[in-house]
Specification:
The structure is a homodimer of 216-residue chains.
Chain A (H helix, E strand, L loop, with lengths): L2 H23 L6 H8 L3 H7 L3 H13 L11 H17 L1 H11 L10 H19 L9 H23 L4 H12 L6 H4 L8 H4 L12
Helix pairs in contact in A: 1-2, 1-4, 1-6, 4-6, 5-7, 5-9, 7-8, 8-9
C-alpha cells in the first residue's frame, strides 16, 4: 500500500473510532487513549493526523458538512422531506452522524464549534428550499433562512425526544408526523397530497453500510 | 424559626444550588461537594434531605412538573402559545428550569429519568389543547397527543439552537417564528389572525424574580 493510501486509511480509522467514543461518552468524557485503543493505531500515528481531541471533533463536523443533496425530483420540496428521512436513518445507523449531533446538542467544552452542524444542515435545507421556491411550491412570503432554521430546529428536537424515549427507534414515524404538522405552513395546499411523507423505499429497507469517512 | 420551616428552607437552598450546578456543568460533572458549598449547608443537612445526587435531580424534575397552566383566555389556543413564551422567559432567567432542560436533553448517567420532563410538558400542552379542541379551535382530525408531542419537540429543538447560537437571547423571537410555521397545521385559518404571537406584555417586560422551589 502506498504511503498516502496508508495515511488516508489511518485517518479514517481514527475518525471512526473517535465518532464511536464521542457518540457513547460525549465530548468531555471522551479520551484520546480510548480513541487510540479502538483505532488500533499508535499514539504517534494519532498525533501525526490530529494535534488534539478538539481537532478530531472539528474534522468529524467537517465530514458531516460534505453531505449535500442533489435532486432530480419533479416536486422539489420532496427532496427536503427525503433529506430529513435520510438523516433519520443515518442517525439510527451511523456513529459518525450520531457523534456530530451529540457534539452539537450538548453543552461541553467543545461549545465554541457547536453551531457548525446547525449552519451546515440549515444551508443544505435552504438550498433545497430555494429550488422549491423557484418552482412556486412554497407559500408566498416565506423567508427561506427562517424556514430552513425552523426545519432544522424542529428535526433537532424531534430526534432528541425520540432518542430519550425510544433510543431513536421511532424517529422515522416522528419525522412523518413532523411533516404533517409543518407542511400546511410551508407549501401550497394543492401540493400537500402530491408529497410522499414516508421514507423513500430505496433508503428505508436495506441497512445502509456504515459511511466511510472521506479524507480531506 | 420553627424546625419544619428551617427544613423547608434548607431543602430549597439545596435545590437552588443543585440547579445552578447542573445547569452549568451537566449531571455527570456536577459534584455534591460543589452543591454543598453553594448551598452553605453541612453535608449532614444535605443527606438529611437527599440520599444522593440522583435524588436531588429527581426532586428538581418534580418541581418542573408543578407548573400547570390554567387559562381564562376566551381563545383557548392562546394559552398554549403563552405557555411557550412563559417557558422561553423561564429558560432565560431561571436556573431551575434550565437545569431540568439540561437533564432532559443530554445523554448522562441520569438518562433513565430523562423522559420525565417531556412527559410533563407534553401533558400540560395536551391539557391546554383539549380545551381548544372543545371550543372547535383545532383543525379536524388532529390527534392531541401527537400535536402535544410535536409542540414539545419543536420547542426543544428551537431552544437548543437558540442556546447554541445566541445563549438563548433570541429565544422569544424564535418561539414567535415557530408559531407562524406551526399554526396553519393546527388551528382553523380564521383563528390565526386572532392569536397574539408575541409574549404577553405582563411577562415580557419586568425580569421575573427567580422562582423559589416549593417543598414537597
Amino acid at each position: 500500500m502506498a504511503q498516502q493510501e496508508r495515511g488516508i486509511k489511518s485517518r479514517n480509522l481514527i475518525l471512526r473510532a473517535a465518532a464511536e467514543v464521542f457518540d457513547e461518552r460525549g465530548y468531555d468524557s471522551a479520551s484520546t487513549t480510548e480513541i487510540l485503543e479502538r483505532s488500533g493505531l499508535t499514539r504517534g500515528a494519532l498525533y501525526h493526523h490530529f494535534p488534539s481531541k478538539e481537532a478530531i471533533a472539528i474534522a468529524l463536523l467537517s465530514l458531516h458538512g460534505e453531505t449535500v443533496a442533489a435532486t432530480t425530483e419533479p416536486v422539489k420540496f420532496q427532496a427536503v422531506i427525503d433529506h430529513t428521512f435520510l438523516f433519520a436513518f443515518g442517525l439510527q445507523r451511523d456513529p459518525l452522524l450520531r457523534a456530530c449531533v451529540r457534539l452539537a446538542v450538548e453543552q461541553t467544552s467543545f461549545r465554541a464549534h457547536a453551531s457548525t452542524p446547525y449552519e451546515q444542515s440549515g444551508a443544505v435545507v435552504q438550498s433545497l428550499l430555494s429550488q422549491a421556491l423557484e418552482q412556486g411550491e412554497l407559500l408566498p412570503g416565506i423567508d427561506l433562512a427562517e424556514a430552513a432554521d425552523m426545519i432544522t430546529g424542529t428535526f433537532t428536537g424531534i430526534q432528541v425526544m425520540s432518542r430519550v424515549q425510544t433510543g431513536r427507534e421511532d424517529l422515522p414515524e416522528r419525522v412523518c408526523t413532523m411533516w404533517r404538522f409543518l407542511l400546511p405552513g410551508l407549501v401550497h395546499p394543492g401540493l400537500i397530497c402530491r408529497l410522499r411523507l414516508t421514507p423513500d423505499p430505496a433508503i428505508a429497507e436495506p441497512p445502509v453500510p456504515a459511511r466511510e469517512p472521506v479524507a480531506s
